[in-house]
Amino acid sequence: MFRHRGKGRRPVHNLKLAALLSFVAGIVNVTGFFAVQVLTTNVTGHFAYFADGLVRGGFSEASIFLVYILSFLTGAFVSNCLVEITAQVAARYMNAVPVFTEMALLFLVASGVFGHSTNANHLVACTLLFAMGLQNALVTRISNAVVRTTHLTGLFTDLGIELSRLLFYRRPEERKKLLASIKLRFAIITFFFLGCVLGGIGYLQFHTRVLYLAVGCLLGGIVYSDIRYRYLLLKKNLLSH
Question: Of 13, 26, 37, 95, whose CB is crowded by the most CB atoms within 10 A?
């Protein structure tokens, strides 16, 4: 899931990655909205608020949304930097480092270390946006831009196009590839929705501590990926002897 790259990556790897990370994104999205009234998995709406603030002369309010936008961008930038740097030192862990960084950030928010003041709320929003930029950049790179898990606008556009193609594609190999892509997009939508629902229910009971669930999911994904990789490597070595 996190290990396979390039030609060794199959649709099932992307499906597992999409299910896990879209579920995490759903939890983060609803937690950010409930806790600080900020959508923290994409920046589209923040551009509208930023422009509105500039037009109305509310530069101080507009600057807040600019910081939100830059937080997501910085997360994506740092994510790729971490991958590139780790690849030169220990390529085996190149994808794990951004995931552990995301886990640490979500853990900090879940533990409530930022407090509950207005400035603290802005810091929470920036931290969650940074974490989602980190995640989105990583999953985009791992899947060769096939999977995106933090926002659904482009996903619904692609899904609409692909559903229409079912009316026109007749060759078996074309339909097989198309159905696999549709299945992937439905998986992202479904698990993002489940993350939002379970995250919302969890927030009503545990507040930001529901993010511990997201941290646990990421940790489980890393452990599963490592165990699976070691198993396949052992199997390959046994078969070669």
Answer: 26
- Are residues 169 and 175 in contact, defined by beta-carbon separation less than 8 angstroms? yes
- Of 74, 78, 51, whose CA–CA distance to 62 is shortest? 51
Q: Computed from CA positions of residues 206, 208, 214, 215, in that sequence, does the dihedral angle turn out positive or negative?
A: negative
For residue 76, what is the enclosing H or E element? helix 59-90
Lowest mean pLDDT among 118-122, 123-127, 236-240: 236-240
Structure tokens at 26: 């759903």
Q: How confident is the model at residue 127, as a pLDDT?
A: 97
Q: Concatenated DSSP letters for 12-56?
A: HHHHHHHHHHHHHHHHHHHHHHHHHS---S-SHHHHHHHHHHHHH
Query: Which residue bears the tokens 């998995």?
Result: 41
pLDDT band with cut points at 50, 70 and 90 for residue 2: low
Residue with tokens 């400035």: 119
Residue 6 Cα distances to 110, 129, 179, angstroms: 35, 28, 21
Structural domains in the chain, CATH included, are: 16-240 (1.20.1250)
